[in-house]
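Provenance and format

Records in this collection were gathered into a single text stream. Each protein contributes a sequence line and a token line. The two records reproduced below are adjacent in the stream.
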Amino acid sequence: MKRKRSCPYGPTNDYVLSSPIGRLAVKSCPHGLHSLHQVDDIDDATFSPDPSVEVKLLSQEFEDNGYTYRPVLSCVLWLDAYFKDPCQEPRPLPSICGATVFPRGSFKTSVWQKLSEVVTAGTVVSYGELATLCNNPQASQAVGSAMRYNPLQILVPCHRVIRQDGSLGHYCAGKRDKVKQWLLAHEGIAFKKSAKAWKRKVRQIP
């Protein structure tokens, strides 16, 4: 099968990784990552986390000479460190193909970058607070849209964005809310059914 040149930096390759939250699908070009997300068959009904599972490469679509693999290797190392001790953040993100994933001038790009830079493990932010951090306090709905289209699950930590009342909100369009709850618990934030009890447990960003 001939590889498609779907990026100006070269052909892309698709990989599957193991992880404590199930298999992860990764797309990369020689310049960096294009996407990272759980495989499509994971939802709240099938989610079965296993903290003992190590992050490893399971498969790849094409054999390559290492160019597309190097960014994925950095992703494997980052995720392995995250699942072992998330509070070691901030740590440098794996190589990302910024021209493709984070187009300049896009509000979504500013949201994703601000979220990655400011909202570290053990903290959460509301949609409105994140909009304010992006210098557009009226854009909470646009922030919600950016979360829905987040191309890099975990690396861009949309699971740390909650509702203004302190409740969790949805994750992956409501299909993986249990994943969001698990990731926050992994980072030291225990979810309570009462929104007020939940918010008191949260360390807000400055």
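Adjacent record:
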Amino acid sequence: MNKNKKTHNNEEKIKKSNHQTEEVKKDQDCGCQDNKKDNASQEESKNNQPEKFSKEDCDGCDKKKDEQSSFNSHDKDNSSSKDEKDLQAELLQLKTELINEKLKSQADLENLKKRLQKEKVADVKYASMNLITDMLVPLEQLGQVLEMPNEDEMLQKFLFGFKMINKQINDVLEKDGVAEIKALGEKFDPKYHHALEKISDEKQPNGVNVAVLQKGFLYKDKIIKPAMVKINEWSENKNGENK
């Protein structure tokens, strides 16, 4: 019996001891948790509190901001100045091009006016050229008929009247600017003479027109009909023979 009581008492003591140990652990756990909560609360409070800067720190920040602002402003001024110079250069180039175009247009207009004026003067000056050109061939044929020899006195008197009319027509043409091209006995000039025939006669001058087959005419300063001629042309070789 005594042994059983002792055993029972020992078990009771062990239970109490274990119970006390568990309560101590709980108290410690609660204390740690409270400490953790307090530490977290303090950290959160620190984070929520605004940072405190000294006056020197603020002055330094303001100075840096002013320097940065001044630097940015300087860059903007330089960029703006460069853009303005580029714009002025483009405007100057455009102005120069417009002036050149204007001068060119004015020059073209003046040249056009001069050309039109020149053509107008030429049209007035040579207004009768086509009519005169058409008249020359029948007038030349009439002159050739009137120069034919004729022994009939009645016909000669009749032709004399036509010669007078032919002379009057030629005088009118000459007054208007028509002139016969000199060809007979003249040095051959391809500008005024066309050679239809050619002979080689040493007794006559070399390269000279010896006959006029058809008369040539000038109208003022223009050739309206070259003279058709026979030309004498010969040359000597080294032995003095004609070639």
